[in-house]
Amino acid sequence: MTAPANRRAARFRGEAVIDFTVDDLREVAPGEVRLRVDVCALCGSDKRLLAGGSAVVPGHEIAGTVVATGDGTSLPVGTRCIVYIPIFCGACDQCLRGQTNRCLRLRELIGWQRDGGFADVVDVPERCALPVPDDIGQDVAVLGLDTVGTAAHGLRLALRTQDEPPRRLLVVGCGPLGLGVVAVARAMGVEAVDAHDPHPGRLALAERLGAGTRVDLESENQYDVTVEVSGAAPARAVAQRVVVPGGAVLALGESNDPYTMPATPRWRRTDCFTVRSFYFPLAEVEGNWDLLRRCGPALRDVLAHPVTLPELAQAFEEFVAGDLLKPYIVSGAPA
Ligand SMILES: [Zn+2]
Ligand SMILES: [Zn+2]
């Protein structure tokens, strides 16, 4: 494998304008590895950068292969990896316990504050390049990040609040992360997983992943755990309404609306856990590979639409319109 001499990268100029630059590559920095990007998935959160522009190359759901290495690294060229985006310090209290997503000195995320994966090449700190097991392909491995990684971490936190495994779990919002929660909850052994989304096509995908879709959104006290994945205020209200006393509301959805709690007599007179989570810690990666072995291929089949880097603007257009659930930018032939 010869190391590339330059890099083609997408630049988000704002107002949905995307163009490309070709930049000469310097030597890889000490402690970093250079990856050929095999897959970089589009994420709903990228829409903010598409509208507002980005100073760095966006793209934060990356699977790649090591093509060059900096001083002081040990990953061999040819290693397939997924990219863990928080640039954690490795030395604070949280990092030392493996809770790297809670790093107290976290300043940068790859694809947000430093160059990400909408490019044919990306440099990352070696500690953020997580080797992929041989039996998992790059198109499934990449789901170990924002889809399965984030879903599994949120669910693990929510389940820790419960004395018994949940009998019934509801997912509100069936975008890629919501569908990830459906698949992971099933793979974790939750017997009855229901899902709701106003979009019938998305709901059908949740059904394909094993969710029940006849859902009563009005009656109180139905679900041990509810997972809100849309960020919309009405969906948050549903998640709070249908949870049983003592249950848990997992708030994964993101929007600019504040999280609120109702001031109703019912809410005042109930026990309830509200759980919020961010990404996942390195300590959970091993367990996430096992979950991916169980549910990853089905999720990929439901979610992924391969496109190439020059088609990025078109893919975003269809993504924003809701026609594509999770476009994958693929380069070369992902394993
Ligand atoms: Zn994402
Ligand atoms: Zn730290």
TL;DR of this structure?
Pfam families: ADH_N (PF08240). The protein is α/β, with parallel strands linked by helices and 335 residues long. Helices cover 27% and strands 25% of the residues.
Which SSEs are present, and which pair or pack?
Blueprint lengths: L5 E9 L2 E8 L7 E10 L4 H7 L9 E8 L10 E4 L9 H4 L24 E5 L3 E3 L6 H4 L6 H13 L7 E5 L3 H12 L4 E5 L3 H9 L14 E6 L4 H10 E9 L13 H4 L4 E4 L8 H19 E4 L4 H9 L5 E5 L5
Bound molecules: zinc ion (2 copies).
CATH topology of the largest domain: Quinone Oxidoreductase, Chain A, domain 1
Strands, total number: 14
Tell me about the largest β-sheet.
Answer: 7 strands, mixed
Query: What is the helix content?
Result: 25-40%
Shape: globular
What number is the mean pLDDT?
Answer: 95
Strand content: 25-35%
Please, how many domains? Answer: 2
Question: Please, how many helices?
Answer: 10
Give the bound compounds. zinc ion
In CATH's first tier, which class of the largest domain applies?
Alpha Beta
- The value of Rg in angstroms is 20 Å
Order of helices and strands: EEEHEEHEEHHEHEHEHEHEHEHE
Unreliable parts: none
Keywords: Oxidoreductase
Domain Alcohol dehydrogenase-like N-terminal: 30-134
Cofactor: Zn(2+)
Organism: Pseudonocardia hierapolitana
